[in-house]
Design goal:
Blueprint: H1 15-25, H2 27-106, E1 112-118, E2 123-129, H3 132-145, E3 148-159, E4 162-172
Antiparallel strand pairs: 1-2, 2-4, 3-4
Keywords: Membrane, Transmembrane, Transmembrane helix
Organism: Candidatus Roizmanbacteria bacterium CG_4_10_14_0_8_um_filter_33_9
Transmembrane segments: 20-44
Length: 177
């Protein structure tokens, strides 16, 4: 068995020798670790750059889809506007038809019309009859049924053997019918 015994005191190292010893032994580990971190950040940067490129491509595709679909959307808006206008016209025609149908069904046979004016929801007419009670009965019937919000008998005058009158029927309401 062999032993080595050193009886000389260890020499105290000065600051520069400590720095050199640290640099030679531990700094290489720090550099390797730093290089690994830098390489990791470098590859992470590649990954982030690729994601940015993919997102830009997706954004371009969506912009193209929007550009392609804009004429279709404008055409759909035009069609929707036209459909709404058509629906309004059909509703007005239906209302006018119901109003005219009601007027023709309820108008007494013993009254002769001279002039009839139809509007969107009102009727004005001049009529004549030989019996004034028919005018009164027709007026009372219109008031009682309340299909027109405003029923106005404007003028009754007698010329020879006939009675002339003017009616204004306004604000036709389908729900009351």
């Amino acid at each position: 068995m062999r032993y080595r015994i050193n009886l000389l005191e260890k020499k105290e190292k000065d600051f520069t020798q400590k720095v050199i010893y640290f640099a030679l032994h531990y700094l290489r580990y720090i550099l390797v670790l730093t290089q690994i971190v830098v390489i990791g950040v470098f590859f992470y940067r590649f990954k982030i750059d690729q994601e940015i490129i993919d997102l830009k491509d997706a954004l371009k595709q969506k912009e193209e889809i929007v550009l392609v679909s804009q004429p279709l959307l404008k055409q759909a808006e035009i069609i929707d506007f036209s459909m709404n206008q058509i629906q309004d016209i059909v509703n007005k025609q239906s209302n006018s038809e119901q109003m005219l149908q009601y007027f023709l069904n309820t108008f007494p046979k013993k009254i002769n019309t001279k002039k009839v004016t139809f509007n969107e929801n009102s009727i004005s007419f001049e009529a004549s009859t030989t019996d004034p009670r028919i005018i009164k009965q027709y007026y009372d019937r219109l008031k009682q049924e309340n299909v027109f919000k405003s029923v106005t008998l404007r003028a009754i005058r007698k010329v020879d053997f006939e009675f002339y009158c003017q009616f204004n029927l306004r604000n036709f309401s389908i729900s009351k019918k």
